[in-house]
Amino acid sequence: MTFFKNMLRDEEGATAIEYGLIAALIAVAAITALQGVGNELNTTFNKVSEQLSNANT
Question: Which positions, given as ranges, span the membrane (predicted)?
Fold first, then answer.
């Protein structure tokens, strides 16, 4: 019975879960931001490629 009482008072697991949720939130935000940057880079490289092709002809 003492084991279960100690287990209910222990907050280390809750802290680990909170840190896990924070890490997951940061990961989702980073993925979203990097996808936007990737799309912008793709657009920029396509414009440069098009301009170089036009300048070459």
Answer: 16-37
